[in-house]
């Protein structure tokens, strides 16, 4: 899915790549199968990696979303994310997205997998996402957990 020819075709109107990168494709399929209407929605992708962020942004554009990519150099990311109907978080920053970043009813796909210290665990750490699940689930319309969300699905 990451061959330059495939990514090039993904970015071109009227062309489909031979293979789609699995995690971004899984995110879009999950949104659609969950009943999230994508056409005309404001989508924010948090993270601009070649593996998830950029392909996810391109796939959402092909679904007629208005897409904004937020990254480490974005000024006032909270304001931008707060306007989103759809959020795909793939920044690699534990609990970066807080409740006050999320518009009520937004659909959130958390792709982040971060290890955070946890002395109560045998390993000494636990996995968590880029989204503060406990807080954001109070305002989100739909949200995926970490672990147990996108990882097993893709």
UniProtKB/TrEMBL annotation:
Keyword NADP among record annotations? yes
Pathway stated in the Swiss-Prot or TrEMBL entry = One-carbon metabolism; tetrahydrofolate interconversion
Q: What is the name of this protein?
A: Tetrahydrofolate dehydrogenase/cyclohydrolase NAD(P)-binding domain-containing protein
Q: Name one GO biological process term.
A: tetrahydrofolate interconversion
Assembly information from the UniProt record: Homodimer.
Native source species: Micromonas pusilla
Question: SUPFAM superfamilies annotated for this entry?
Answer: NAD(P)-binding Rossmann-fold domains
Q: What's the stated role of this polypeptide?
A: Catalyzes the oxidation of 5,10-methylenetetrahydrofolate to 5,10-methenyltetrahydrofolate and then the hydrolysis of 5,10-methenyltetrahydrofolate to 10-formyltetrahydrofolate.
Give the Gene Ontology MF terms in alphabetical order. methenyltetrahydrofolate cyclohydrolase activity; methylenetetrahydrofolate dehydrogenase (NADP+) activity
**Keyword Zinc appears in the UniProt entry:** no
Give the record's family classification. Belongs to the tetrahydrofolate dehydrogenase/cyclohydrolase family.
TM spans, by residue? none
